Amino acid sequence: ETGVTQSPTHLIKTRGQQVTLRCSSQSGHNTVSWYQQALGQGPQFIFQYYREEENGRGNFPPRFSGLQFPNYSSELNVNALELDDSALYLCASSQDLRGALEYGYTFGSGTRLTVV
Amino acid sequence: ELKVEQNPLFLSMQEGKNYTIYCNYSTTSDRLYWYRQDPGKSLESLFVLLSNGAVKQEGRLMASLDTKARLSTLHITAAVHDLSATYFCAVDDRSSNTGKLIFGQGTTLQVKP
């Protein structure tokens, strides 16, 4: 297993800009979820992708979008950045739609996005 | 809507002492997870609890689940400084059919020498 890797680790953007965050899931994990963690808060579910299709979405506006690719990598795109988008963005992969029964979800190291 | 609440939110304790973190959730769920997060880092999986009465232990940490009471506990035995971190419980939102996790606010544990 190679784990879940995210890039970049840190990013500073200006309000109104667009950003793409990347995640490389563990081999064999066909499900990836993205979470936003504001400072001092628990992570909040943005959306999930399963076999390259969006499979559920949290309370986030359409300017948050994603892609999943056949090679287990995925992207989170955010358009028209707002100051409140500043957060740690985490991707989590799992072996199936509802998580690996025994091991749960594997989280990546995260991307810290700062919007100024 | 599923809600998850942890208490306490902050816990300062002496090395060698025991304490328990509580996680309550509002609707039926079949999986509960505990994660650890060090400052500026990602989430490390600690325990996956899958059924009523499940108990798991790893080192000085023990987690249990009571699905009837919708309560999970994370018990810390003889705390050491290395356990200082923020601990999150998360519940699988069955209504979403996506494996969506709902997280608690987190409990920040500070273990003093």
Defining key terms:
heterodimer; A: 116 residues; mainly beta; 7-stranded mixed β-sheet; 4-stranded antiparallel β-sheet; 11 strands; globular; B: 113 residues; 6-stranded mixed β-sheet; 5-stranded antiparallel β-sheet
SSE blueprint and pairings:
The complex is a heterodimer of chains A (116) and B (113).
Chain A: E1 5-7, E2 10-13, E3 19-24, E4 31-37, E5 44-50, E6 53-57, E7 64-68, E8 73-78, E9 87-94, E10 106-107, E11 111-115
Parallel strand pairs in A: 2-11
Antiparallel strand pairs in A: 1-3, 3-8, 4-5, 4-9, 5-6, 7-8, 9-10, 9-11
Chain B: E1 4-7, E2 10-14, E3 19-25, E4 32-37, E5 43-49, E6 55-58, E7 61-66, E8 71-76, E9 85-92, E10 101-103, E11 107-112
Parallel strand pairs in B: 2-11
Antiparallel strand pairs in B: 1-3, 3-8, 4-5, 4-9, 6-7, 7-8, 9-10, 9-11
Structural class, judged by helices and strands of chain A?
A: mainly beta
Helical run tally of chain B: 0
The largest sheet of chain B, given as strand count, sense and whether it forms a barrel, is: 6 strands, mixed
Assembly form of the protein:
heterodimer
Return the string of H and E elements of chain B: EEEEEEEEEEE
Task: Give the ordered list of helices and strands of chain A.
Answer: EEEEEEEEEEE
Q: Show unreliable segments of chain B.
A: none
Per DSSP E runs of 2 or more residues, the count of β-strands of chain A stands at 11
Strand content of chain B: over 45%
Q: Tally of extended strands of chain B?
A: 11
Number of helices of chain A: 0
User: How many strands, what sense, and barrel or not for the largest sheet of chain A?
Assistant: 7 strands, mixed
Beta-strand level of the residues of chain A, as a percent range?
Answer: over 45%
Overall outline of chain A: globular
Using the CA coordinates, give the radius of gyration of chain A: 13 Å
| Helical fraction of chain A | under 10%
Query: Rounded to an integer, what's the Rg of chain B over CA atoms?
Result: 14 Å
Distance between the termini of chain A: 37 Å
Structural class of the secondary structure composition of chain B?
mainly beta
Distance between the termini of chain B: 41 Å
